[in-house]
Design a protein that fits this description.
The structure is a single chain. This protein is about 85% helix and about 0% strand. α3 packs antiparallel against α4. The protein has one domain. The longest helix has 29 residues.
Amino acid sequence: MSTTRQLAAYASVGAVATFAHYAVLIALVESAGWRAVPATLCGYVVGGVVAYILNRRHVFASERPHAEATWRFALVAFAGFCVTYVLMSLFVDRWGAPYLPAQLVTTVAAMFATFALNRRWTFG
């Protein structure tokens, strides 16, 4: 699959994972009264599980054993988790931005940061 098609598929899978992430984020902020940063980190973990399953099967068609791909994906996801933490802390806690627009910007930044790593290292 070409890089352009793979990036499009990655973004499509990302949309599903992002839906799961945002559902947890919004539920924790609006219903449970959590602060945005811890809520988005919980959502990120849920979205990460969804992303691993769908990316392995539909985007990268990886034959790398789960025992190896899982820890690699987790390490890349942790990098995205750190990007999410830093950006959301800046946008929401420091600059007072509304949490959902801040999360949208953060999601796009994390997607591009993790695509290349997952393509080449996790599933490649």
